Amino acid sequence: MRPPRKPPSSPGRTPRPKKAEQGRATSRPSPSEQARRVAESWGVAPENKPARKSGSGRPAAAGTKAAASRRDGKAPAAAPARSKNRTARPEAPARAQARTRPGGQPAPATPRPVRAPRSPDPAPVHRIKAASEPQRIAKLLARAGVASRREIERMIAEGRIALDGVPVETPATLLTSLRGVSVDGQPVADAEAARLFLFHKPSGCLTTERDPAGRPTIYDRLPAGLPRLMPVGRLDMTTEGLLLLTNDGGLKRRLELPSSGVERTYRARAFGDISQAQLEELIEGIEVDGIRYGRIDANLERRTGRNQWIEMTLTEGKNREVRRVLEHLGLTVNRLIRVRYGPFDLADSAPGDLVEIKRGDLDRFLHQLKERG
Questions:
Q1: Interior CA angle at 339 toward 122 and 342, to 5°?
Q2: Is residue 160 one of the residues assigned to a domain?
Q3: How many domains does the chain have?
Q4: Which residues are catalytic?
Q5: One domain for residues 351 and 258
Q6: In a domain, 210, yes or no
Q7: Considering the domain boundaries, does residue 274 fall inside one?
Q8: Residue 163, strand partner residues
Q9: What residue numbers bound the domain in which 200 lies?
Q10: What is the pTM (predicted TM-score) of this model?
Q11: CB 3.0-4.6 Å disulfide test: which of 40, 109, 286, 357 passes with 196?
Q12: How far apart are CA 250 and CA 117, in angstroms?
């Protein structure tokens, strides 16, 4: 059999060494050597770390110990687990020492304090606190829901209100609290938290506590068992719709003031002819019989024959404001309904219904009033 033919070697070419010889001839630099070369190329002095030495005194290459263990028939030692946090915190040893007891047993973990969740609702701002400065007794009693200021003045004149057993002579008496005050011999209880009710006032009743002529009032339509409630503003006898009632005289006054900017929305059915352009002029206000009425947002909803349904939104709420303004424009109002007061509306309530505003809704509304200033 013919032996295999050897390739001719060129005279000027060195034969390629085998893989084993090539590995011994040109060894790959170690990572530390590579780092040193990179540092020299950038002009940075490399760190002088003590090199690990093998048994022959030469620096041990990567994997030397593992290879030696395989030659000796031993399993290579497992590499230590690499921590995720490369830089340990300074307090780590102290923490580790605190987690172990003297006997070597782990100490129980100390529970972290749990912070109570914050409430999404703002803090109630309608609580009645004791006055830091002296106030008139009539004002304090009205805030406590005893009666209106005018009624309290009559009660003082009749000698029905006393302070420490002595009848009060003037409603201008200054007090910081109602301690020792009695009405008809009964001590005045501490003021309750403010409550707000939505009453759908029907037509044909007065917004007053009593009428000398004996005509029906809103209090004839209210259910029994309620605290003494005061109306926020007034509606005429023939005007129907939303009427707010509260047991807090201070809250009543605050909602009535034009400076609070609380909007009231009415729907009026009026007889006559008017255009949307005429209604839009009310946005700048109008003066009627020497009385200046502020900004009114009026819109013509629909016509039914000679009657027009007009929606009007205002913030002042002066006496008979809607009727007087529309009469000044040549219209005759034959039905008037208040459908909204601030964020509260009639919704689907029927005439005579009474609904209490939820505490959370009241708190948010008062918080908005406080931010508005």
A1: 25
A2: yes
A3: 3
A4: 236
A5: yes
A6: yes
A7: yes
A8: 166, 181
A9: 194-262+347-373
A10: 0.58
A11: 357
A12: 32
